[in-house]
Amino acid sequence: MKITGKFEIKLNPMDAYTQGTEGIHLARMSIDKKFYGDLQASSQGEMLSAMTPVKGSAGYVAIEQVRGSLSGKKGSFVLQHFGTMHQGRDRLVLEVVPDSGTAELSGLTGKMAITIEKGQHYYEFEYMLG
Length: 130
Prior knowledge:
The chain has one domain (2-116): SO1590-like (AOC barrel-like). It contains no helices and 8 strands. The protein has strands spanning 2-14, 25-35, 39-51, 58-70, 73-86, 89-96, 109-117, 120-128.
């Protein structure tokens, strides 16, 4: 199955465990999202990021637990993010953590793509249940 929709995101700074050095800025943020479309859900999680002194080069990792309904099936699952940006060219791996699906979403696998157009966030979620 492949679905698409919009989402809203709020990122809030949290206390960092460590400080970057030599021009590297490390940050820790909370994630709160609201998904619309065939994924009617909200999520909460945490993100760690590193900004380099080179404009457009950075990296982040994140974990978020999504709760709600996916194509009418209720439950929750966890998404894991791995993102890098190299001088403006980005790469994002965003996948369902294996065996993290609960209730009617048990056995869920999949990957998600994110795009941002004119400030609006969109997702494309390709998944399998079973």
